[in-house]
Amino acid sequence: MNLKRNRKRFIIPLNSMSDVAFLLLIFIMLVSLINYRKEVKIEYPEAETARNTSAEKNLEIWIDKQGRLYLNGDTSDLRTIEDSIITTYQTAPETRVHLIADKNTRFEQVNTVLQMLQILRYRVVSFVAK
After folding, report:
1. Which pLDDT value is given to residue 3?
2. Using an 8 Å Cβ cutoff, are 58 and 71 in contact?
3. Among 64, 79, 99, 112, which lies 20 to 30 A Cα-Cα from 120?
């Protein structure tokens, strides 16, 4: 008994592989452009000189013109900000605190945050301006 086996060759179509790779590349590029940072809409005061800092190691305190406080874009109060600064300093002392206030914010509201930072003896503080 002589049986013949039919061997079929399987061919992977490579015509559409370039399309799939191109679509995958576009998807990855779009996802990487999404900005997850929360921002508060304020008018920045203008500065005479500029200095860039690394954005990954920042703790941002925002103050809008009504005097409301935000910590990294989320509504907060002075006590929560103080606790967050203490825990951040214990884990990463090189973390920079950015104080971002609207240019129409009253100085007394900015000064309360500055006094809290002074009491905590936090030394790495930046004022953010346009």
Report:
1. 66
2. no
3. 64
